């Protein structure tokens, strides 16, 4: 066997450009390279030659990179033969754990690789004379650093937006918020082995501390700040390119929320209590909103827009906040005019919702409209490894992991293993096979909502129409660019279905269970009551809010519905079950409540609703109905049908008339 100093590097990759890249960097260390184009060839070479290091790609012709690693580890341990796994794939934390723990590679890098970073890793893997090679990084630390880098890049982008505001106005609070962010970078970078981040954070903090006390930021001063922010972002993006993609953005799976409201409102007082209990939710007045948004880096911002000035009065603060944050801005309002809504959306609002009765609704709304918390990979299906690798590099730049599948026969295994946010299919050269795969996936109930994008050289409208008819969500032309990918990955089509699945079975506004879930619960309860002789009562409430929605706006109707739902949930026993049974109806299932008790309880709740609605109750004319088992000896479906018939009869006549139309803001 050769002396270790004479042994070189075995490079296993079918990409000639990467082979040349490794040879150039290794040449700076005086180390030679031997190249293998496939896993089979690499294993044959290892049977006859000795090496100091193996650099291995993940997507190879024939045997996959991970299987090559396993076969190498059957003969050589990590200390005997270090393996550097370098691929555009395997970027997510789960893949990192798999490579480090099961395959026992020594280091993972992601393409494209910065030359200086690659040189640094080679030096550490070879080890200085008399020292052992670099030990693998613990997965927990790698995951924390990945989360830190992802959130740090967002914070730098927020600092840039804040600097744009300061170019137009003098805002000492924003300068203080910038200095606080810089101080955080100064203290946190070194904790994650990123000394350059700490150094640049300190330089920004020192520069802001030395700013002129009077006036805004002078042009030359602002230019220096912009240069330092550029350098900070570059340092973080270099690290992001080599860190595994964090599965969670931030350190908590619960959205971070800021409520901009009157601190004395009932909702604000409840939020303050939650914040005191350690929940990631805060409340501020409008005057403090700008500084707090920059300081807290929340995932969603709720702005009260139900005062005297309504939605139009909230547009200025909405537009200002949009400049300094990428968080979703959600307005809480009563008016539902089309023009006002459009103006709010143009100012940067993501949604307009009714004011909730309790703060948990804010978390439900944030789950639907806020920044995405969970980062799921993109699955790439195709037979050409070079195309898949090129797309994976671009997706990695956008902060997403990509997983390859080169065999259509294994597509369902890949879908189950990785639960991707998007499937991108290379539709060339066999267009018909690609469409067949799309139709096959759409024929599986588990993947009806999965966004599927076809990439092809076919760009004629007829081809695109055929793809959409087969079940594709969209088509993009080759060569695929970042401009094509970025809107796809951030689109509602990609995120919306999974967001709503997180709230499956729940009504978002009220937090109550929905109709289908309640019907399943009722069926089980009736079956149990038949066997054990239990008395069950079902209360049905018709709020009559359809007329209120048409005359006063849907948001006003939802506000009343949320208040009534909260009253039902809190005034009944914990063992009772409350559900929303359509836009204007609510049900409650009471155990051990006989017919007379059920009617009394229902009347008390209806009286509360009438009092809460005030003069609107005359338009709505709410009503209730009750049925009791076993007084009515029928099944669950018949119980619900009886409730529905009684409530239908109680509705005002104009509810069924065709001229009962929606009033539109003109």
Structure description:
The protein is an alpha/beta fold. It has 5 domains: 4-136, Response regulator (Rossmann fold, 3-Layer(aba) Sandwich); 144-242, Up-down Bundle (Four Helix Bundle (Hemerythrin (Met), subunit A)); 257-285 and 300-350 and 358-368; 378-500, Rossmann fold (3-Layer(aba) Sandwich); 515-656, 2-Layer Sandwich (Alpha-Beta Plaits). The protein has 26 helices and 19 strands. The protein has a 5-stranded parallel sheet with strand order 2-1-3-4-5, sandwiched between helices. The protein has a 5-stranded parallel sheet with strand order 7-6-8-9-10, with helices on both faces. Helix 10 links the parallel strand 6 and strand 7 (281-284). Helix 7 (172-188) packs parallel to helix 11 (286-296).
Largest sheet: 5 strands, parallel
Assembly status: single chain
Could you give the order of strands across the largest sheet? 2-1-3-4-5
CATH H level, superfamily name of the largest domain: Reverse transcriptase/Diguanylate cyclase domain
In round numbers, the mean pLDDT is 82
CATH class (first level) name of the largest domain: Alpha Beta
Low-pLDDT runs of 5+ residues are 1-6, 128-134, 248-252, 656-666
The CATH topology of the largest domain? Alpha-Beta Plaits
Instruction: Supply the number of structural domains.
Output: 5
How many strand segments? 19
N- to C-terminal distance: 86 Å
Indicate the proportion of strand residues: 5-15%
Structural class: alpha/beta
**How does CATH name the architecture of the largest domain?**
2-Layer Sandwich
| Overall morphology | globular
SS field, number of helical segments: 26
CA gyration radius, whole angstroms: 30 Å
Overall helicity: 40-55%
